[in-house]
Amino acid sequence: AQSVSQHNHHVILSEAASLELGCNYSYGGTVNLFWYVQYPGQHLQLLLKYFSGDPLVKGIKGFEAEFIKSKFSFNLRKPSVQWSDTAEYFCAVNAETGANNLFFGTGTRLTVIP
Amino acid sequence: EADIYQTPRYLVIGTGKKITLECSQTMGHDKMYWYQQDPGMELHLIHYSYGVNSTEKGDLSSESTVSRIRTEHFPLTLESARPSHTSQYLCASSLDRGHSEQFFGPGTRLTVL
To answer: Which residues on B lie below 8 Å from A52 (Cβ)?
Structure first.
């Protein structure tokens, strides 16, 4: 079975600081990778996803993530965070075979201080 | 507008009561899911469905049951609620393709006293 590790549980940054949130997964086969975000009081929504092609993917609101297959990683980055990025961020993975169900990490809470 | 709906948003109930959490989607998706989420923990899949009359158990064992009589509707039922069922329940839907995005509802926060 797949599993996902997010090592940062709570990150606190000042506005304009750069962000990198770690995500590692365990699965030997072909995977699809996702970052979801949950803003306070809102639904979980997709930030970006990778399933093939260029390992550097760009998502909404200036976020990007890089898939490094050799490291089983899919870290999320943003060069300059804003107060409105305060949210909980979840990394998720599914395998290309089987039921295609998502496995989620425990999430990282990001607090951006104005 | 295409969306996914969950009711109620909050529910406080006594032990032993039967409850049904509602989930409906107007996305036209075949696949639907129920997740359980506790604070600081990952979302755990408890049920999913490929379409009408299809229900499957997820990775986390749950005493709840689900049904899928209509494509757009995927209710979750607890026959006898217990304090251990206190949690947030999230419903989601997607196309049945591996890289398809899952769309989530707002969740139901259940407290069993």
So the answer is: 99
pLDDT of residue A97: 67
Q: How far is B104 from chain A (nearest CA, A)?
A: 6
Q: B61 pLDDT band (50/70/90 cuts)?
A: confident
| Residue A84 per-residue DSSP state | G
B62, amino acid identity = S
pLDDT in tens, A20-54: 999 999 987 888 999 999 999 888 999 999 988 99
Q: Do B48 and A101 touch (CB under 8 A)?
A: yes
A99 or B70, which is more confident?
B70
Nearest CA in chain A to B40: A106
CA quadruple A103, A33, A36, A5: dihedral sign: positive
Cβ-Cβ contacts under 8 Å for A98 (sequence gap 6 or more) = none
E strands present in chain B = 4-7, 10-13, 19-25, 31-37, 44-49, 56-57, 65-66, 76-78, 87-94, 103-104, 108-112
Q: What is the CA radius of gyration of chain A?
A: 14
pLDDT over threshold 90, residue B97: no
Distance of residue A91 Cα from the nearest chain B Cα, in angstroms: 10
CA gap A6, B38 in Å, rounded:
16
Q: Is A95 within 8 Å of A31 (Cβ atoms)?
A: yes
